[in-house]
């Protein structure tokens, strides 16, 4: 997936400025596709030049005008073509998993250091799970009355929650194994 596709989805959900889009990435889309503010602005300019986006100048009192982006017909067509294309399984690169396998070739001090790293990694993912679950409560308080877009957003968020839970279970297993060595 290219950043362009994530931007198209976000702008179809709700048009907005580059700043607003970057904030959405930090709050929701960034759970599954990360991008810096600079990357987002650079891609927005390219997408506008390619005719995928239309920008509207919006005046603001006491502040510089902002540009609000929406998806043009060519952008929607590009997204539809991408949505119809097959998805290849992603190659997984998991540095921590390689380190865990490598623990067989170190001493007790090396394994102790690895335990500390797994504990730190686990704490980060536990925090991320907490963030996802709080976001679910905040963004989806009424699960009975979600529209199509909200239902699809929610199922992706549930996938993120399930992934984090699975990862935490695996990390607990890793810690148990390392501590038993």
Automatic annotation (TrEMBL):
Stretches assigned to the Transcription regulator PadR C-terminal domain: 92-178
Residues in Transcription regulator PadR N-terminal domain copies: 7-79
Cross-referenced InterPro entries: Tscrpt_reg_PadR_C, Tscrpt_reg_PadR_N, WH-like_DNA-bd_sf, WH_DNA-bd_sf
Origin: domain of life: Bacteria
Name of the molecule in the record: PadR family transcriptional regulator
Protein's organism: Actinoplanes sichuanensis
């Amino acid at each position: 997936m290219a950043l362009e596709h994530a931007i198209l989805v976000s702008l179809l959900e709700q048009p907005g400025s580059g700043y607003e889009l970057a904030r959405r990435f930090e709050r929701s889309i960034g759970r599954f596709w990360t991008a810096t503010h600079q990357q987002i602005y650079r891609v927005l300019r390219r997408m506008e030049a390619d005719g995928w986006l239309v920008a509207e100048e919006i005046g603001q009192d006491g502040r510089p005008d902002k540009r609000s982006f929406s998806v043009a017909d060519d952008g929607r067509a590009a997204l539809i073509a991408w949505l119809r294309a097959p998805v290849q399984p992603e190659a997984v690169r998991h540095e921590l998993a390689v380190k865990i396998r490598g623990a067989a070739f170190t001493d007790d001090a090396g394994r102790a250091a690895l335990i500390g790293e797994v504990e730190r990694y686990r704490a980060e993912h536990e925090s991320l799970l907490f963030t996802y679950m709080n976001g679910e409560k905040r963004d989806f308080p009424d699960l009975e009355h979600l529209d199509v877009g909200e239902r699809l957003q929610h199922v992706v968020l549930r996938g993120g929650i399930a992934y984090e839970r699975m990862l935490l279970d695996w990390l607990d297993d890793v810690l148990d194994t390392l501590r038993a060595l």
